[in-house]
Amino acid sequence: MKLLLKIIFVFLLLGSATTSFAQLTIVSSSQYDSIVKASPKLQLVSLKSNFIQQNIKYATSDNFTHEIVYDTAAIFLSLDAHTALLKVIDFLKPYNVGLIIYDAYRPYRYTVKFWDLIHDDRYVADPQKGSRHNRGCAVDVGLYDLKTGKSLDMPTAYDDFSEKAAANSKDRTKLQSKNVELLQQAMTCNGFQLFATEWWHFDYSGYQQYPIYDISFQELSK
Ligand SMILES: [Zn+2]
Q1: How many other CB atoms sit within 10 Å of the CB of residue 30?
Q2: pLDDT at position 222, please?
Q3: What is the pTM assigned to this prediction?
Q4: Once rounded to an integer, what is the mean pLDDT over residues 59-69?
Q5: Is 201 exposed, middle or buried (CB count within 10 Å of its CB: 0-12, 13-18, 19+)?
Q6: Nearby residues for ligand 1 (ion, Cβ within 5 Å)
Q7: Phi/psi of residue 90, each to 5°?
Q8: How many domains does the chain have?
Q9: What is the pLDDT confidence band of residue 22, given thresholds at 50, 70 and 90?
């Protein structure tokens, strides 16, 4: 696959500038520290909470590729998306509901891999555009009962590439509708946007302010 990957340090100014670069800007591990030093807002933050279940499917073979993709199971988000997701977690507590996290920040290298497997931009991002997961600004989430630890009933399994998985599908039971609506309300009230083809995927509204990162989980965890 031919990709034109251009690294532009001018991206440091992106907090106030537009992001209308013709070519994709990819931040590698060697640039990360200096970029975060210049603009602390651009850091990727590890999510820790007693009210989440970490279930990173791509760190297991229980995903559409049927192989282990990520070498580490970790949840990182851009600073603003992280703050917003903590608000979602607080929003859900009175309902006795917690968040299952299936995926969050995804190093760019895996977006390239997924595109090689599924050439369909309804379900995986075109590497020439990058994914909002690569920006630390997308999360794949479900809900669980805080008392029992059991998952709430949702319309489909995670990464079910069918029309039934659409955010606004009517093909679901009353209970599934109620659960999806609670998830959508919690997310959209706290800065996230729906994604049309996947009930589990949400984008942080300010994703345009963040670059594409290609930094491994192990490097981020150091
Ligand atoms: Zn997603």
Answers
A1: 10
A2: 83
A3: 0.88
A4: 92
A5: buried
A6: 140, 201
A7: -65, -40
A8: 1
A9: very low
Q: How far is the CA of 18 from the centre of ligand 1 (A)?
A: 24
DSSP 133: T
Domain that includes residue 193, residue range: 46-208
Concatenated DSSP letters of 17-70: S----SS-BEEEHHHHHHHHHH-GGG-EEE---TTEEE--GGGSS-STTSS---
Q: Does 9 fall in a domain? A: no
Residue spans of beta strands (DSSP E) within the chain = 26-28, 44-46, 52-54, 76-78, 97-103, 138-145, 192-194, 201-204, 212-214
Query: What does each C-alpha distance from 115 to 128, 196, 204, 217 come to in angstroms?
Result: 10, 19, 22, 20
pLDDT given at position 121: 86
Going from the Cα of 13 to the center of ligand 1, the distance in angstroms, rounded, reads 27
How much distance in Å is there from the Cα of 93 to the middle of ligand 1? 23
Residue 175 sits in a domain whose CATH number is 3.30.1380.10
CA 40 – ligand 1 centroid, Å: 25
- Domain presence at residue 152: yes
Q: How far apart are CA 160 and CA 164, in angstroms?
A: 8
Whether residue 116 lies inside any domain: the answer is yes
> Does residue 24 form part of some domain?
no
Give the containing element (helix H, strand E) for 130.
none
Which DSSP symbol is given to 15? G
